[in-house]
C-alpha cells in the first residue's frame, strides 16, 4: 500500500520547490485515469493570514478524478526568514472531500510580533486505499503582520 | 464566538477587511445532528464569493476577484447584551475602480451567507476598513467641486426609491486606533459628505465625546500585549435603510471621503441604529 511520505522541500534564495512522493508505477500513469487505481485529487486552501494572533492557513480537498471518500490533507505554513523559506507549522488529518463543516484542516503558528513578514503555504491531498493519488498546491506569497 | 483580533495593516502588509455582526441569529445551529447542515459560514462564504466572481483563488498566478478567503464563523448569539453572531475576514487581492474599497459586495456576501444560516436580527455591525490608496481622481460629485469614487456615484441609485419609512437613525463610530487624524478631520469629513450629491446617508452631527462612541467588546483592534490608543469620532445621521447592503455602501463612501481628507490609515467602523 502506498504511504504518503512527507513533502520533500528544498529552499533557496530564489524560491522553493516542493514535491510529493508518488510510487514508481504511478509516475508513469497519466493523471486523471484510474484504470490502475490512480486518481488525482484537488487540494484547496486559502492564503496564509493573521488570525487571533496567529499565522493561519486552511486546507481541504475536492474529489478531482477520485471517488475515494477520504484523503489525508496536510497544510504547511512557511515563513520567509532572511531569504529562506522555513516551515513553521503543519497540520494534517483525514477528511471527506468537498470542504464544508468540520472538513478543513487549519495550521497555526503563534506570532511573536506584528512585523510585516512573507508567508506562503502548501496544501496537499493524498488519497489512499482502493485508489491512490496525490496532489499539492502552493498558495501565493503574502505579507502579513506576523513574525515568529 | 470569539472576535478575531485584526491588526492595523501598515506599509508592506496585505490589506485585511473583516466584518463582525452583532445581534441574534435565530434558528442557527452549527450542526443539527442529522447531517443536514453540511456547510458552515466559511464554506458558504467561499462558495458565494466564487459564484459572484468576488473570490480570488489561493493559487499562484490567480487573476480576477476582489478578495481571498481568510475566516468565517457564526453562532446563534445570546441576543442581549449585544453579542457577536458572525465574523468574516478576507484579504483584498485586486485593484478596484477608483480604488474604492469593496465593502458593499463584501457585506452583500456576508448577508447572503447569514441568510442561509438563520434569521438575523442585526443590532450592530463592525467593519475594518483597511489601508487605502490616496490620489484616485474620482468623479465630480458636488457644485463645490468635491469628488468621490465613480463606482459609489453609479451605485447610489440602487437605494433611490426605498420606502422613506425604512430610513433609520444611525450612529457610526470611526476608530483610527493610534492615528489621531480621524478626530482632527471629523469636521471636514462631515462637511465633505454633506456637499456630495447623494441621499443614501444624511449626516446630522458628530461628536468627539467618549460617552457618544459606540464601542463593542472585545475591541478587535486591541492588542493584548500593548496599551492601545483609540482615537474615535462618532457621526449621527439617517441611513436609507438598516441593511448590510446600505451599510456596505456607506462604509465604502466614508472610507473614500476619509482618504480624500488625508486619512488613509486603517479605520474601524462600528454602526448601530439607536
How would you describe what is shown here?
The complex is a heterodimer of chains A (148) and B (274). By secondary structure, chain A is an all-beta fold. Chain A is 3% helix and 57% strand. Chain A has one helix at 24-27, and strands at 8-12, 15-19, 42-45, 49-51, 54-62, 70-81, 84-96, 105-110, 113-127, 133-138, 142-147. In chain A, strands 6, 7, 9, 10 and 11 form a 5-stranded antiparallel β-sheet that branches. In chain A, strands 3, 4, 5 and 8 form a 4-stranded antiparallel β-sheet that branches. Chain A has a two-stranded antiparallel sheet with strand order 1-2. In chain A, a hairpin with a 2-residue loop joins strand 4 and strand 5. The longest helix of chain A has 4 residues, at 24-27. Chain A is elongated, with a radius of gyration of 16 Å. In chain A, 41% of the residues are buried. Residues 1-31 of chain A have low confidence and may be disordered. Chain B is α+β, with helices and mostly antiparallel strands and 274 residues long. Chain B has one domain (13-272). Chain B is 23% helix and 26% strand. Chain B has helices spanning 41-51, 103-117, 150-155, 181-184, 186-195, 244-260; strands spanning 16-26, 67-74, 84-92, 119-129, 139-140, 147-148, 168-175, 201-207, 232-239, 267-272. In chain B, the strands form 2 sheets. In chain B, strands 2-3-1-4-10-7-9-8 form an 8-stranded antiparallel β-sheet. In chain B, strands 5-6 form a two-stranded antiparallel ribbon. In chain B, strand 5 (139-140) and strand 6 (147-148) form a beta hairpin. The longest helix of chain B has 17 residues, at 244-260. The radius of gyration of chain B is 18 Å and the shape is globular. Residues 2-10 of chain B have low confidence and may be disordered. Classes of the chains: A mainly beta (148), B alpha+beta (274). The A-B interface holds A 44-47, 49-53, 56, 58, 98-104, 114, 116, 137-140, 142-146 and B 2, 4-14, 16, 30-31, 37-40, 42-43, 46, 58-60, 62, 68-71, 89, 91, 223-224.
